[in-house]
Design brief:
The complex is a heterodimer. By secondary structure, chain A is of the alpha+beta class. Helix content of chain A is about 25%, strand content about 30%. In chain A, the strands form 3 sheets. Chain A has a 3-stranded antiparallel sheet, with no helix packed on it. In chain A, strands 1-5 form a two-stranded antiparallel sheet. The chains are: A alpha+beta, B alpha+beta. Strand 7 of chain A pairs antiparallel with strand 3 of chain B.
C-alpha cells in the first residue's frame, strides 16, 4: 500500500490517500450506482397554481444510476433481477439489464378547484418516490 | 386536448376515456397501445387532468367558477391540518376520509320573515354534486356556517336549524315545495369569527347514496342569544349576517389512485424488514428528511 501510495502521490498529489472516509466511501459505495435523486417542482412554474391551491411545491424525486451485477442483498431485489443480469451477460444482450426504478412511494395530498367552483381535498397514492431498487 | 369533444366519460369511474376510433386523433402523448388504454383510464384524475391541461394554455379553457373566499380559507385550513408541509398526508390523525369536497350553493331562494322578535333566516339552497364520482363513498356530510360578527358575542347563542329536502315537481322549478324535514337545536358560543358545522349525515345519506346529482334543501335558521338552561324566554335577537351555508362532504375514494391509509399501514407493518438502501436523500415515507447514511442508522 505504501508503494502504491507513493506512486499515487507522484501522479495526483491533490487527494491525500490517507483520507479514509473518502476511500471507504468509494470502496463501499461505487459512484453512479442506482439511487434516489431529488427533483422538486412548483405548480406555479407550470402555471397550474390557479387551480392547484396546495401544495405549492411537489417533490416527486426520481431513481437513476447503474445496477450492479450482484444486486440482491443491497437493493432487496428479487432473485429474478440477478437471473436477468446473467441472461444479459451470458445469453442474450438484447435482453436489457435490470433498471433502477422506484421501490416505494409516499402519497400526496392535493387541494384543487374544480371547474364548477367547488373545492376538493384528495389524497393520492404513490406520488413521491422514497426508495429505489434494481429490477 | 383539441380532441376533447371526442372523448366520452366513463360513467363508472368518471374518467375520460377516448372511444376506440378516436384514439388515433389524440395527442401523440396520449396515444397508448390498445392494451394499455385501460391503464390510461386508470391514471389518477390529477395526472389525467394534468396531462390534458398541460397541453392547453390556461387562457383558452372555459371560464372556471371561482370558489367563495370563505370556503377557500376553510379548505386551506383543513389542508394544513391533514397534510405536512411537503404535502404528505399526516398519519397521526386517524381520519378515514381521503377526499373532502366543499360545495357552495349554486342557487338560492331567500325568504325573510318580517317578525322582528326573532332573527330568522330562511333560504332554499341548491347544491350540484356532479363532481362526486361513483367510487367516492360518503362518510359524513356537514352544513358549514361561517359567522362573521363584528364583535365577539358574550353569551351563548341558541339556534334552531330546520332542514327540509325539496323535490322538484317540474324541471326548471327554482323553488320547489318541501318533502321531508328535520329540526336541529344548536347551542354554541360565537367568537369573533366562527365556523359552525351542522352534521347532516343521516339526513342526506339516502340522497347521496342514490347518487342524486342535485340536492335541494330549505334551511330555516333561527338564532337567539341566551342560555336555555337559565332563561325560560329567549330574548335579544342577534343582528348577525348569516351567509348561506356550504355543504362539506367527507368521502372515502375507493379507486386505486386514491391513498388508502389503512392498506399502506398494514403493508408497512407486514414488511418491517427493509432492503438496505444507499440513499443520498434519506427520505422516510413520512416525508421528513433523515440525516446520516442508512448504514449509520442501522449501526
Amino acid at each position: 500500500a505504501r508503494q502504491r501510495r507513493d506512486e499515487h502521490l507522484k501522479e495526483a498529489p491533490a487527494t491525500p490517500p490517507y483520507n479514509l472516509s473518502d476511500y471507504f466511501k468509494r470502496f463501499l459505495f461505487p459512484q453512479n450506482e442506482c439511487e434516489l435523486h431529488n427533483f422538486r417542482l412548483s405548480f406555479s412554474q407550470l402555471k397550474w397554481d390557479r387551480w392547484i391551491i396546495a401544495p405549492h411545491r411537489y417533490s416527486p424525486q426520481y431513481c437513476k444510476g447503474d445496477c450492479p451485477r450482484v444486486v440482491g442483498h443491497r437493493y432487496g431485489s428479487p432473485v429474478h433481477t440477478m437471473v436477468q443480469n446473467i441472461i444479459y451477460e451470458k445469453l442474450d444482450s438484447s435482453v436489457p439489464k435490470p433498471s433502477c426504478v422506484p421501490a416505494e412511494y409516499s402519497p400526496l395530498s392535493v387541494l384543487t378547484i374544480e371547474p364548477d367552483g367547488s373545492i376538493v381535498y384528495k389524497e393520492y397514492e404513490d406520488m413521491i418516490a422514497t426508495k429505489c431498487t434494481c429490477r | 386536448p383539441h380532441s376533447r369533444d371526442h372523448v366520452v366519460s366513463d360513467e363508472t369511474s368518471g374518467f375520460l376515456v377516448a372511444p376506440e376510433g378516436a384514439a388515433s386523433e389524440l395527442n401523440p402523448l396520449l396515444q397508448l397501445p390498445k392494451s394499455m388504454r385501460r391503464g390510461y383510464a386508470l391514471l389518477p384524475p390529477l395526472l389525467k387532468v394534468l396531462s390534458d391541461r398541460g397541453n392547453q394554455d390556461w387562457g383558452s379553457e372555459a371560464p372556471r367558477l371561482q370558489p367563495d373566499s370563505r370556503a377557500l380559507r376553510y379548505m386551506k385550513r383543513l389542508y394544513k391540518m391533514s397534510a405536512t408541509k411537503e404535502g404528505i398526508p399526516k398519519d397521526n390523525n386517524s381520519h378515514l376520509y381521503n377526499t373532502v369536497r366543499l360545495f357552495t350553493p349554486c342557487s338560492e331562494c331567500k325568504h325573510r320573515h318580517r317578525d322582528l322578535k326573532k332573527d330568522v333566516h330562511s333560504v332554499d339552497l341548491l347544491f350540484n354534486l356532479d363532481r362526486v364520482t361513483a367510487l367516492e363513498h360518503l362518510l359524513k356530510s356537514v352544513l358549514l356556517y361561517s359567522f362573521d360578527t363584528p364583535a365577539p358575542i358574550p353569551s351563548p347563542i341558541v339556534c334552531v336549524c330546520r332542514l327540509s329536502v325539496k323535490e322538484q315537481e317540474f324541471s326548471g322549478q327554482v323553488c320547489p315545495s318541501a318533502s321531508h324535514s328535520v329540526a336541529f337545536r344548536l347551542h354554541f358560543q360565537v367568537r369573533k369569527r366562527k365556523w359552525v358545522e351542522v352534521d347532516v349525515t343521516s339526513f342526506l345519506q339516502p340522497l347521496i347514496a342514490t347518487h342524486r346529482r342535485d340536492i335541494h334543501m330549505a334551511v330555516n335558521f333561527t338564532c337567539l342569544m341566551g342560555d336555555p338552561q337559565h332563561t325560560t324566554k329567549l330574548e335579544n335577537p342577534i343582528n348577525m349576517a348569516l351567509v348561506p351555508p356550504s355543504l362539506l362532504l367527507y368521502l372515502n375514494d375507493t379507486s386505486e389512485q386514491a391513498y388508502h391509509r389503512w392498506n399502506s399501514l398494514r403493508h408497512r407493518r407486514r414488511n418491517p424488514a427493509r432492503p438496505r438502501q444507499r440513499n443520498s436523500l434519506r427520505v422516510s415515507p413520512m416525508g421528513d428528511r433523515g440525516t446520516g447514511s442508512t448504514q449509520g442508522k442501522r449501526a
